[in-house]
Design brief:
Helix content: 40-55%
Radius of gyration: 25 Å
Number of strands: 11
Order of helices and strands: HHEEEHEHEHEEEHHHEEHEHHH
Oligomer: single chain
Strand order of the largest sheet: 3-2-1-4-5-11-8-7-6
Distance between the termini: 23 Å
Structural class: alpha+beta
Length: about 350
């Protein structure tokens, strides 16, 4: 074991040279110019306390192991799924704060040429967008669901949509303020819409069932709990467990003449329901690429599935998780071996 650990320690010191060597081979053999770079972040957790690792911390776990310390891993790969570089961040690092560091490192290797970065919405902030623009970089990124509210009229329109694959349509729309060189790609998927409707229906059923239980208990003369504040906190807990349904259902705690809770009044405004149905299955991409074909832009963005596939393969088949090593450098060497294997 000690000999293998020493081998890891020695290998880890040559990470940058190894990555550069393999990228040069890939370029020579296949003529790749690395014009597309996919960037995504995942996490892996530790067995043990990981006291010897300065980056081990508790944070959002993609492995549903919030009970364990972890590190975050930023992976840059090609559209073919070939890992080009991995960076290890503290386990409590927020995804959006990693972008600038990774972009600078990749520019140091490839130069600051025009390149298209593909990232999901977890990487998006106005600061990151401004950073990429200042470096003449192109980007295609996902956007938060809330941004769809600016494109309600476009969602209603039946014309100017392109079918990019069966059951999925897309169209290019301009910025709401009409400024800048950016554009948006509005997408709507039938399958995704049906899935979101089913999920919302389950949440609505759960939430209304629990709210009706509270209402029934309050209307009984034998109910002991009458404090409106406590009732509202109880309602809030159920709303927190069913957030999508909570945005549609309005709840008012009724009070008697003694200001005691006496029941609930539930309503679902038609306007909220209509807007919710409109957004089902829809999502928005943001780009400053000169390309205007919505199908091409959508397919470029969907290349991110290669990064996600790389993570799945590394975790399931190659043994990236869990991590049993304890030292910071040895953990990074372990991750390097996993991605070299990939």
């Amino acid at each position: 074991d000690d000999r293998l650990y020493r081998g890891l320690d020695r290998l880890g010191k040559h990470k940058d040279r190894l990555c550069e060597h393999l990228m040069q081979r890939y370029r020579d053999w296949f003529g790749v110019r690395f014009e597309f770079l996919l960037y995504d972040v995942t996490s892996t957790y530790f067995e043990g306390q990981a006291l010897g690792n300065t980056k081990a911390a508790r944070g959002y776990s993609r492995d549903q192991r919030s009970d364990c310390k972890q590190v975050c891993i930023g992976l840059v790969c090609t559209p073919d799924g070939l890992p080009l570089n991995d960076e290890v961040f503290a386990g409590n690092r927020v995804d959006v704060t990693t972008v600038e560091e990774v972009v600078r490192k990749m520019e140091a290797r490839f130069g600051q040429a025009e390149r298209i970065w593909v990232m999901d919405r977890g990487m998006v902030s106005e600061a990151n967008i401004d950073f990429l623009r200042a470096r003449n970089a192109r980007y295609i990124v996902g956007t938060p669901k809330a941004e769809l509210r600016h494109f309600e009229e476009e969602l209603v329109e039946k014309e100017n949509w392109s079918e990019v694959q069966q059951g999925l349509e897309a169209r290019v729309v301009e910025r709401p303020d009409g400024e800048g060189c950016e554009k948006y790609v509005l997408c709507r998927s039938q399958a995704r819409g049906q899935k979101e409707k089913a999920m919302l229906e389950r949440q609505m059923n759960r939430l209304t069932e629990e709210l009706m239980k509270i209402d029934t208990a309050l209307r009984k003369s034998t109910s002991k709990e009458r404090d409106p504040g406590k009732i509202e906190r109880r309602i809030g807990r159920w709303q927190g467990r069913n957030p999508a349904a909570a945005r549609l259902v309005e709840v008012v705690v009724l009070q008697d003449e003694k200001r005691r809770a006496s029941g609930l009044q539930l309503s679902c405004p038609l306007e909220k329901g209509s807007k919710s149905d409109l957004a089902k299955g829809a999502y928005l991409l943001r780009t400053n690429c000169t390309e205007t074909d919505p199908e091409k832009l959508w397919r470029w963005y969907m290349q991110l599935t290669q990064a996600e596939a790389a993570f799945r393969t590394a975790k399931s088949d190659i043994g990236l998780r869990p991590v049993y090593h304890q030292k910071t450098e040895r953990v990074e060497a372990h991750l390097l071996v996993c991605f070299l294997s990939l």
